[in-house]
Amino acid sequence: MLPEEVLKEAADAVVDYQGDGLSILEIPHRGQKFDSILEESKELVKELCELQGDHEVLWLQGGGRMQFAMIPMNFLGDGQRAGYLDSGHWSRDAIQSANVFGATEVLSSSKQNNYSALPDLPASFPEDLAYVHITTNNTIYGTQWNGLPLSEPPLIADMSSDILSRKREYDKCALFYAAVQKNVGPAGATLAVVRKDMLKQIKRKLPAVFDYREQVKSKSVLNTPPVFAIYVSLLMLRWTKSKTISVLEQESIAKSEMLYNEIDRNSVFAPVVKVKDHRSRMNVCFTAATKEAEKRFADLCHARNIVGVEGHRSVGGFRASLYNAMAPDAVAQLVSVMQEFEQTAT
Ligand code: PMP
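Above: the input record for the complex with 4'-deoxy-4'-aminopyridoxal-5'-phosphate. Below: its predicted structure, written as tokens.
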């Protein structure tokens, strides 16, 4: 979701950006206008993530999945091992990509629970790992880490589905990244924030487009960047700053609690994630007692104009995604439809 004011400003810029007759879709990517967009957006990321100056902000392409590949390409050398916390589909995908370039060690996994809980954290991670990879929010299963683990090896975090939704120790990460289409913007751009000292750890000779050093050197315009997606992300970053991360976090707590409380109370529904401390504030997953009840609830949602609440095909049931731009009122509406459904179902 994107806030209406962001959509309107983006729509105006498509017709005429800054009043001189050129659309945002037409401006050159090596001109002063786009330079200012890049500059301001990078500064806003640093400010919102409270970074102290040790990190470089990159706008890239290829989504989360390309980061799954770039990370081991750059940081997993021959004969090295990288540690992964296996908390679901996206972690597994990241592990598979890393296996192409080197050895991985699954430090802990919640596969045995069908990923409906977070994996247990080991007391410590082996010190000789090239890095440790964590997925902070598990979009499909609806689990989320509240904090980041202490890690001797460099910590790398996939924050695709919860970046900027809460205060986090972003500074603790050697690298964090997000496909921006959840909390930061439209599809098409990827944010990667890398600590400068990591650039000296790159293990391979790589084509420039996959090499973080080259991306840093060329200030995210190594090749033609997705200008519009980055521009809309800048509008979202400005919106995020004006709301503030702490207000967004308070709203996120309120929205997710409202929904989890209803799921726990309502006799028709059950939460996918039973351990309260493991529950995601971003993706709330729940089921109904029978397939037939699920079908009827889906129909009622459709009739009440609530869209996009079907669960991922690997989990089933329902998933309400409560990203930053989702208004609390919309969650209240879903809750009231759940109550209406309970009354008719019992
Ligand atoms: N990581 C997480 C946590 C995700 O939720 C997703 C996509 N929803 C991805 C990675 C993959 O992103 P993309 O589709 O941009 O490659």
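Notes for the reader.
The chain has a mean pLDDT of 97.
The first helix runs from residue 4 to 15.
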